[in-house]
């Protein structure tokens, strides 16, 4: 062990005449540990929120959507769909027909967004039909059945009090024109399944019908609203969307998951930066404790320093002793903080013991996603701040004059 590190370690272990120095040193270690642990947990939460929101969004929606600029939808869509499937970077494509409806069972009702789908194609671009909680979506695959099937989101089904096997009434505002005026059209469906994605936006409003049933409900025999795509590189979905739009021709426009959720992910990134800065102040406070502890240590060890220097220890060696002492405090606190922080984050990510309101946060539990790179960054910041805090007391120790310090001994 180097001489400076040996002396620094002895100073930390030795019994001091002034117990307050030892207390401040312990507080410094705990402060650094608390700051590091808080940063690790906070960054794990922001990473988890971003990861879960992104994965659920991508699981519930397509990477790219193609639609008409005009509001009349896409007609003669089958040749267009086959042509779009052959484009580079497109791995799957599915048609869909959207429409706002009122879904009711007895006196209870709720607004819903019907999506008419071809189930086999829809499963290639969205995971919603694969997240069935009760019942089954198999009836959607059948071209004919005794009762028309419908699949609802779990929160929507709870809102109207419907269970699998119940009959629900779907009322469309796009009704039929009669001599008495426009009459809303309604149709009864059997609830075949209930899906739960964990994403409130979909669980509270989405409902799936067979495409032919939806076209009949909306009185549109050969119309779709959108063609949804999965692409081979989701992080280049914006560029691929432009290629799809160009291939579709005039009168079409595209949207992609990055553009639709840009503000959400920008807010999460800003939250991550602000969290790092705010909680990082805890480490700065702990660094001030290190400065105070080392300053008091220099005052207490003035005679020891003078004796060491009279034996030939150089001023730069004395400086390194107190630098090493501050770094030992920081390393001990950082290691303890990393242990506590990662343990808490891993347990939180595994057991999901913190529940959230899905109506507010879009997800129903607090996710944790600890990353190794965050530990490296937090450790580097902690050690750097602590090193800055040791500069003044170590420089003061190096300026001790042996003759002055030992004059009255």
Explained architecture:
- There is one protein chain.
- With 409 residues, the chain is α+β, with helices and mostly antiparallel strands.
- It folds into two domains: 3-58 and 263-405, no CATH class; 70-250, no CATH class.
- It is 55% helix and 21% strand.
- The chain has helices at 3-13, 19-60, 77-85, 119-125, 154-160, 200-203, 211-217, 237-248, 257-260, 262-300, 302-310, 315-351, 358-361, 372-398, 402-405, and strands spanning 64-68, 74-75, 90-105, 108-117, 132-135, 149-153, 167-178, 181-195, 206-210, 223-224, 226-231, 252-256.
- It has a six-stranded mixed barrel with strand order 3-4-9-6-8-7, surrounded by four helices. It has a two-stranded antiparallel sheet with strand order 2-10.
- β3 and β4 (108-117) form a beta hairpin.
- The longest helix is centred in the first third of the chain and has 42 residues, at 19-60.
- It starts with a helix and ends with a helix.
Q: Which percent range fits the helix content? A: 40-55%
Task: Provide mean pLDDT, rounded.
Answer: 86
Q: Regions with pLDDT < 50 over 5+ consecutive residues? A: none
The oligomeric state is: single chain
Number of strands: 12
What labels describe this entry?
55% helix; two-stranded antiparallel ribbon; 6-stranded mixed barrel; 12 strands; alpha+beta; 2 domains; 409 residues
Briefly characterize the structure:
The chain has 409 residues and is of the alpha+beta class. 55% of the residues lie in helices and 21% in strands. It contains 15 helices and 12 strands.
